[in-house]
N5-carboxyaminoimidazole ribonucleotide synthase
Amino acid sequence: MTFPKIGVVGGGQLARMMAPAAEALGVGFHVLSEAEGSPAAQVSSQVTVGDYHDYEALLAFARTVDVLTFDHEHVPTEHLEALQAAGVSVQPQPQALVHAQDKLVMRAKMDELGLPNPAWAPVSSTAELAAFGERAGFPLILKTPRGGYDGHGVRVIDSAAEAADWFAEAPGPLLAEEKVDFARELAVMVGRSPSGQTAVWPVVETYQRDGICKEAIAPAPGLPAELAERIAGDVLTVAGALGVTGVMAMELFETPQGYVVNELAMRPHNTGHWTQDGSVTSQFEQHLRAVLDLPLGDPTAKAPFTAMGNVLGAEHEDLYRAYLHVLAHDPQAKVHMYGKSVRPGRKLGHVNVSGADPVEVRARARHAADYIAGTDPDPHPRHGRSDGPARAAGASAAESSARAESTAQTGAGA
Ligand code: ADP
């Protein structure tokens, strides 16, 4: 027997961060990248440049690897089914992946499984939307079932007439949802192998801005144990019922009754980046183990809390000086950059910080990420702890930061 080769469709940051996991596991790692110089192409020795919309390009690539998996969910479902029929090991299988590709399919499945959905309906006209609005109330949320990401394809609608332009363009029905009055957003990730082995990470709290994930913290502070257990059980139900292989994220809204499902992603996910530094097994390693049907790794957290802050592009084009400062200022922060050029709102990297105090680790991760992006100009913030106001109670945090800086200086001099 020989070590298998994995093929990843898509050259983004998720494929990029799978590469070190493949290297450590000793499995072959090939990328089908839409362009030369993509984040994943920069770090992979085996790169094919090709278009994932082109079935022949996908098939030719798939013939060079043992298992085909994905950095994104945009490969047409019919191509995936044709690849499967041609004998390619497509993981996750298209029958599972369609629930992450199509939000209408996902909503129907959640109802079938008895999982908590918001009120929803497929709507094909402003008249149907108005009828749904009568029941669910305005404002409501209107979504394109396919192709949305980072809030693109999600609109808050105050009256049915507002959506006329979307109906004019839409190739099929849109998804109308009740606007959930949630306390906060949560997410849970699971790994599942074709043999049916599963592993669930702790539930995280996520912070979105303009539809983009900005921060996450694991575990979600103050989440009642009973709700955390229910969510872990439910994500296992979904993964088993859908036959998920690889890792899956289930995004949730916490509500007074518990939670409702927002959406599914079947690949490593932004809300799981904390696992790179905060869990025994990262989501990237777990994804590879799962799609290859290897035994799964332990998802246990290594620290009481790990926070992740996204570096989101802003005005500053040259991030290097700020990045140097962050490395020096907080030597415990783990900085991950994606090798991308700066564009406003673009995900350029992220920072993970672990520790005992959720308020402090969150503040440190957010500051490091925002400082690199150029959106937080304060080079020496005092990170508050949860037992005091953020800016005032800095003594112990400042001390530990000073300790950290002197450790780094010692390290650099050695
Ligand atoms: P995307 O596919 O772009 O990630 P989502 O379906 O996750 O889109 O929606 C993006 C954001 O919009 C969510 O994180 C949430 O903040 C908000 N949102 C989506 N659906 C609802 C809803 N039914 N009620 C309230 N807010 C919602």
Notes: Residues 388-414 have pLDDT under 50 and may be disordered. Residues 118, 141, 143, 148-154, 177, 179-180, 185, 208, 211, 251, 262-263 surround adenosine-5'-diphosphate (CB under 6 Å).
